[in-house]
Design brief:
alpha+beta; Peptide Deformylase; 25% helix; 35% strand
Length: 180
């Protein structure tokens, strides 16, 4: 399947609230495969449809949870029903390349959604998996992780964000970890 072009910070589609869709397997499956291929090609652990210019509530995840084990998920129209505890953790984003910072997120969440075949999904997640899900759901609501940074943190990234808005890649040090 093809690798789709990523939308980068400054693109209006990243700020729009994605619309809920009817998950129909035959229609959705090829797009979901494209999302997974794109995420893997970009060394990501999560990717939401708006990040490739599609304003629909679809996201994919391939999150490492233990050594040599990861959780692969497709969530359509996800809704967090419970969030508990808080923790700080570093985040980056495929749509905000070169920018990484500590973000406060719920440690444990419960959610309901549909899979790509239209089957209902109820899920409990904690730690890094919960963080990744929250990050991707934010994309569906037009929120980027940099919006969750404090004023001082945002000020520190002002130069990089302006460069991205202008269509240039920031001169930030390369980060070796995967981005959400």
């Amino acid at each position: 399947m093809p690798v789709l072009p990523l939308r980068i910070y400054g693109d209006p589609v990243l700020r729009a609230k994605a619309k809920a869709i009817e998950p129909v397997a035959d229609v959705l499956r090829p797009f979901v495969l494209d999302l997974f291929d794109t995420m893997k090609a970009e060394n990501g652990v999560g990717l939401a449809a708006p990040q490739v210019g599609v304003s629909e509530q679809v996201l994919v995840l391939a999150v490492p949870v233990k050594r040599h084990q990861r959780v692969d998920l497709t969530l359509v129209n996800p809704e967090i029903t419970l969030a508990e505890g808080w923790e700080l953790g570093e985040e980056g984003c495929l749509s905000v390349p070169g920018v990484y910072d500590e973000v406060r997120r719920a440690y444990a969440i419960e959610l309901k959604a549909f899979d790509e075949a239209g089957k209902p999904v109820e899920l409990k997640a904690e730690g890094y998996l919960a963080r990744a899900i929250q990050h991707e759901i934010d994309h569906l609501n037009g929120v980027l992780f940099v919006d969750r940074l404090g004023m001082l943190q945002r000020q520190l990234h002002k130069k990089e964000l302006k460069a991205l808005e202008a269509g240039r890649m920031p001169n930030a040090p390369r980060h070796e970890g995967p981005a959400l």
